[in-house]
Amino acid sequence: MNHLDPLLKPRSIAVVGASQRETRAGYIVMNNLLHGDFKGAVMPVTPKYDSVAGVLSYKNILSLPIVPDLAILCTNATRNVGIFEELAEKGIASVIVLSSDMHQNSDNGETFDSRCLAIAKKHNIRVLGPNSLGIIVPWLNLNASFSPVTALPGKIAFVSQSAAVCTTILDWANDKEIGFSAFISIGNGSDIEFSELLDYLSTDSHTEAILLYVDSISDARRFISAARAASRNRRILVLKGGRTAKGRAAAMAHTGGADTLDIIYDSAIRRSGMLRVKNLHELFAAVETLTHSVPLRGERLAIVTNGGGPAIMAVDTLFDRGGKLAELSEQTRDKLSNVLPSSWSHSNPIDIVGDAGEQRYIDTINILLDGDEADAILIMHSPSAVAHSARTAERIIEAIKKHPRHKRFNILTNWSGELTARPARKLFTEAGFPTYRTPESSVVAFMHLVEYRRNQRQLMETPTTAEKVHIEDLADAKNWIERQLLDKDTVSLDTHQNSQFFKHFNLDVLPTWIASDPSEAVHIAETIGYPVAVKLRSPDIAHKSDVQGVMLNLRNSSEVANAAQAILDRSQLSFPTAHIHGLLIQGMAKLAGGQELRVKVTTDETFGPIILLGQGGSEWDESIDAAAAFPPLNMTLARYLIIRAIKSGKIRLQKLPNPIDIEGLSELLVRISQMVVDCPEIHDLDIHPVLANGDKFTILDADIILKAYEGDPQERLAIRPYPVELEETIQLKDGTDVLLRPILPEDEPLHADFINRVSKEDLYKRFFSDVGEFNHEALANFTQIDFDREIAFVVVRKEQGVPAIIGVSRALINPENTDAEFAILIRSDLKGVGLGRILMTKVIDYCRAKQTKQMSGMTMPTNRGMLTLAQKLGFKLDISFEDGTADMVLPLFE
Question: Where is the N-acetyltransferase domain (predicted)?
Fold first, then answer.
């Protein structure tokens, strides 16, 4: 049983604070439970009444005749501490807290929320809320909520931090006859939050898609990990509030979250494989689309319309959002010409002319359904005296459903207008076709499907390998950091001080000298040669531009002396208490043909280190001028960060003799990512600018803030990086040295070759079926893993100078860390050299180090080699010849 089953599949419920007063939450919750026809026991708890809504009530929780699975607290926060103590004594597993005032301080100075949570944690009580609206699970006839409306049954789960958004969505969905598999209001999410619910809903057979309304996230790593896992088998859309500074402030007041930049959330949503919608209007459109769509085969959209203007608006929206129009073949155009008037558009959009009747629509749609030039069809209709809106819709619905290939296409409809179009839209909704009021909203809804498909494909793309930093260089970099910090907690370093550090990561830094006064600045300039740049050096003036602290292209001693003195004078005048540590002198970089970029690393309170990329320049607002990505980056993720920065205008490509080399910039970003991953002391890093000249990148100015760090360096990262510490060289029985290491995304070609060299019989024993050939998606699932949730170890040896995978073991660990499901596969021509024991021992040691409770696996009774090895390693075997299965279990911790 899942640990959330008592909450989401309760067999009995206690309503604490049940009431006979219609305006009270205790009355509404009781009414919803009883009128929803919930089959389990409902027990009102109140000392005020003998019965509520005709149901016998109980004076307190301890007097209940049974232990309910779920308690719903409709009480004032001041009573909840005592109630939680009773819940613990009774042994109740789950509670929903509706109270919105739990943040207030109790008599001992602690908040009611913190006191209740302490009791809950001690007694393993799971809490939804506070400030929750409750839950609705339509397929269980369960409405355990404070909502004025209930939800219809459907296949979409909705999870929200905002109760008001919940009721808004419910009211709209009921009007559109759209249903839900679950409707969950998490409120402030003090205990149960998004990650656990995503884990639960992603394996729920009643749920096909998940919608989230998010104000803030408290545990970034758990959220991203759960979302990545869930998005592989469920479509997930996110509406994130707080896109602006004022919006973030409101969100912080609402849920108590941190002030995290919106671009960081945007990056987290994208990196997790989810899709973000901008507002409620888009969310409504997305719900409509998800309810009635099939997985996209491609991105080509065909548009059928009786009006040119609306079709033009649709095309504009499509191309604004990066969509594609289907191209009609000559054969298809000929077929259309046979059924359409000569004045039809002869291209896509297919304008069938304003006097189009029902049959003209049907003929056009059938031709498109017969062909393979489109993946989706948008059918548009403007009010017409010739074609009655509702009757045309009815005939089109009949024709599409009769066509044998209609399920291969996503069909979307846009019946514009209100009075005449509303009955037609209702017909489409009832028939299961998504329908929209405007051309723009219909295309936006289609692009949600496209963007989701693109996100998933990007995450599955096999990355190329970036050149790694040598172990010796990394050790030198760590030693350098140690020397800088010594007995300090925090230290700020400028370009001159940190240039050696960058060189350890093979990054070019423009040579820099320090001058204490204008005369020394002149002496340095004369030595290195003109032209030069003179820059202010002060730990207290964050932005040199505040005092015009950067002077460029100085060509003689007089210009250098004057510029240096002017910088010092302006600094003294504007910041009289600032410490001035002299001046930085640099030779001028060859700017001709180059473009200045800015790369920054900042540490967010919730998400940890973030890499920001944008255009160079002194005026730089992180929330507006940068694209963001999480370390660790590989070459593919770095390239998509660059592309996103360019497409969103954060980097404005210039027409230069040596344009920015995307591959080279990707390599730079990967190195900075590795720097951040391997050196946890880096709190902030600002390269402003880096000069991009073709494939050459030179750091002109860079500041680093180092902070002493203790603990696991990986814990601060939102995404767990590759665990390089698990690599080891081992020796097989035949004396061959091999590398045993975790799997990498770049291993996909090696993994494909490995599987091709495993016999069909061995593959059958591993997968319990004839698997055939593995496609890219399947191989990506094997190689692109989340190290927070699973592990795969490969043994790699050199064969004719080329690395080859010869064996793999893997373990998928459940979110509760109670079980790790393992599997192992050895190349068929290399059995008997000790690979099985090596791989199994490695994965057992890993799970034991993670304190996983047990390991489990399944094989066939005929797989004697696996069973013998498992028994030797301490596994308990349960063999069923009747079922053709053999279960293997290894307890790790009792």
Answer: 738-894
The CATH class for the domain spanning 293-460 reads alpha beta
Q: Cα separations (Å) of 27 from 18, 77, 279?
A: 6, 17, 33
CATH class of the domain at 1-150 = alpha beta
**Domain residues of the chain, as ranges?**
1-150, 187-292, 293-460, 463-510+589-721, 724-891
Amino acid at 28: I
pLDDT along the chain (894 residues), means of 10: 93 98 96 94 97 96 98 95 97 96 78 93 97 97 95 95 93 89 96 97 95 94 96 92 72 68 95 91 82 87 96 97 96 97 96 95 98 97 90 96 95 93 93 93 93 87 81 93 93 92 94 95 95 93 88 95 96 94 90 86 97 88 93 94 94 87 96 96 95 93 94 92 95 93 96 95 89 89 95 96 96 96 96 94 98 96 94 96 93 89
CA–CA separation, 192 and 114 (whole Å): 14
Q: At what angle do helices 471-485 and 662-678 cross, to 10 degrees?
A: 60
Contact 433, 397 (CB under 8 A): yes
Q: The domain 463-510+589-721 belongs to what CATH superfamily?
A: ATP-grasp fold, B domain (3.30.470.20)
Is the fold of 463-510+589-721 the same as that of 724-891? Answer: no
DSSP-assigned states of every residue in 255-281: H------HHHHHHHHHHTT-EEE-SHH
pTM above 0.85? yes
Eight-class DSSP state of 589: P
The helix or strand, by DSSP H or E, that contains position 762, with its residue range, turns out to be helix 760-767
Please provide the DSSP assignment of 445-506 as one string. HHHHHHHHHHHHHHHHPPPPPPPPPPHHHHHHHHHHHHHHHTT-SEEEE-HHHHHHHHHHTT
Count of beta carbons in the 10 Å neighbourhood of residue 165: 19
SS3 content of the chain, % helix, strand, coil (to 5): 40, 25, 35
187-292: CATH class = alpha beta
Alpha helices in 648-681 (DSSP H): 662-678
Going edge to edge, which strands form the sheet with 876-880? 728-731, 737-742, 790-799, 802-813, 819-826, 854-859, 885-891, 876-880
